[in-house]
Every structure is written in C-alpha cells, then in structure tokens.
Amino acid sequence: MATFAVTYTYSPTTSAGRDAVRPAHVEFLKTQFDDGRLLKSGPFGPEESPGALLIIGGETKADVEALMDQDPFQKAGLIEERTIRQWNIFFGADAPRPEAPQSAAQN
After folding, report:
1. Whole-angstrom distance, CA of residue 24 vs CA of residue 76
2. Is 105 domain-assigned?
3. Residue 58 falls within a domain, yes or no?
4. What 3-state DSSP class applies to 75?
5. How many domains are there within the chain?
6. 99 occurs within a structural domain
7. How does 66-96 read in b/e, with b if 16+ C-beta sit within 10 Å?
8. pLDDT digit string (tens) for 14-55?
C-alpha cells in the first residue's frame, strides 16, 4: 500500500459551514483511522491559512481520490482546494527498512 499526502485548503467564509458539518467529518475520519486508511491528520496551526493535512494509505491515487470524495466536507463543498500526492517515506517509523548485508560468518 502506498502513502498519500492530502491537503485541504479552506476559505475563511466557510467557517460556519465547517462547524455545522464537522461532527460528520470527524466520524468519517475516525472510521478511516479505525480501518487503517487514515494514518495521521490534523488542521494547520492558527497562524497558517485555514486547512489540514491528512496522511492516507491507498493502492492508487484514484483510490484515495474516491475515498476522499466521501468526506462530508468535500460533499458539502467546504474545501476550496484539495491536493493528493503520493508520498514516498524515507525516514520515520513508516519508512521501509533496508536489509542489513549478511556477513561471511552468517553464510
């Protein structure tokens, strides 16, 4: 399974709409987390433009797009811009571990 970075950008004018839809959005994300698809997520800090970052596992970009189309924020038109990019992790707990070379004594 590949890893994808999904970014949401919100318009400040949709704040009230996001507040109204947030319980359904959180339930959607919780389901994805419980199913192992959502690895990490959260909004950007208060000094940043409104938005969020979600790290999603998926087979293909199209698979992740189809999943994220089901987000209540997306369905309600509350996301101004959404990007989905495959993310190849090199460092961190999720990075693939290189195999250690076997020494001659182990052969």
Report:
1. 11
2. no
3. yes
4. helix
5. 1
6. no
7. ebbeebbbeeeebbeebebeeeeeeeeeeee
8. 999 999 999 999 999 999 999 999 999 999 999 999 999 999
